[in-house]
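S.,

As promised, the glutamic acid run. Input:
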Amino acid sequence: MSKKVRVRFAPSPTGPLHIGGVRTALFNYLFAKKHGGDFVLRIEDTDQNRYVEGAEAYIVEALNWCGISFDEGPHLNALSAGNKNEKFGPYRQSERKDLYKQYADELIANGNAYYAFDTAEQLDGHRKGHEAEGKTFIYNWHNREKGRLINSLVLTEAETKAKIEAGEDYVIRFKSPQDETLHLTDTIRGHMTIDTNVLDDKVLFKSDGMPTYHLANIVDDHLMEITHVIRGEEWLPSLALHQLLYDAFGWEVPEFAHLPLILKPTGKGKLSKRDGDKMGFPVFPLEYTAPDGTISKGYKEEGYFPEAVVNFLAFLGWNPGTEQEIFSLEELVADFDLARVNKAGARFDPDKTKWFNHHYMQQQLDLDLAEQFKAIRPELAEIDINYIALVVGLIKERATFVQDFWELSHFFFTAPTSYDEKASKKALKNETPALLQEVINIVTRTKEFTVQNLQAKIKGWITENDIGFGKVMMPLRLALVGALQGPDVFDIMFMIGKAETIKRIETLIK
Ligand code: GLU
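Predicted complex:
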């Protein structure tokens, strides 16, 4: 690669960013950083009808949370972007509106595009007419010059001019070539050929002065000196037109890489925004409140760590070719390679995402987790953070999310208010009160209240008297926890302290 690598993430601000979009951004970021290149955010907002307020801010915030940063974009000021904004910006297509028309004109001038004046009703009529005959209406070489369609290919120059000057609505369409075989290359999919006769003459520009996605996208990739276009598979059908547009302008074609689809957990069909709600996992990085008030869950709010999200997204379509599964963002940058991206769809596995989260939780400092825990449980407001951190250290191995902590640890903070029924049946026998009374005696006599001492004394007494561990340890646990769950009993006793231990055992005896 001789030229400086420049890639872009080019979302349309039509709603919250789906995790598929985050994966596209991530792969672009990894590729740019791996090759010492630039990563550009470009907002493709030419379709004003689909524009959603707040979507751009959501995109920036979500990627920021993931640790995916841009070198250039509408959200960065000129200084932080190394003044590239002046050369390549603005980065919102709506702010670049005025520069697209000249390119549409250029294509008309060199015979690669034409004006079309067919109204929506007329086009609808053609579509319905074709449907009635079991055919599909395609606006292209086989009908564009037959006279039923109204465009500058059949009108005289003067007629065309007159219509435009009279303020008639028009579009500019690309004139797809007839009877050609187009050769396309994609880094992930290899070589492909397309018969140009199947292509329709896509609209590039509308009389409201707005370019369509296709024209704006190609012009901007060219002007922004994008070297590699890495995007989702759903854009593969546009590749032929994009290649034709580059050729029509005489511009160098960037390298293309279309990332595989992300499939539902069943492996059948594309993962959709609705699957998450149906199957109980988030499909958005951050919680999103739609203009109508409906809330969609976000990974962040559900308790996922950004490291876990990045790690599982990296494996949706890519693999390192080794057994290694845990990758930090830096390690991903070092190992990422487009040659190791599959073309087959990548099945989304919600359990694996939890597995990653569990892993990254174990890596976090107990004190940091304690802060997060404290922030979500009002019961912990008055409790010393160091105590909470010790508790977290004892239970985090069994947790996937910070939200799991309370369920696993409430007995470190408050005495049980009830006893699990099944556990009580199992643990409580006639001799239980006498045995627990003896435990109280031992605890009372234990001067140095440490885990080791408690363990030695209580276990020693059980063995010497041949009592059987279950007969003591089960009711003891029930007294402390309220159920037959939780970490080591001696750890719990030590943590809650002597007085509280005795109090809880007494309560159970009563
Ligand atoms: N605006 C398109 C999108 O929403 C960009 C596709 C591309 O990367 O070319 O994904």
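The longest helix spans residues 19-34. Residues 10-12, 44, 213, 217, 231, 235 surround glutamic acid (CB under 6 Å).

- D.
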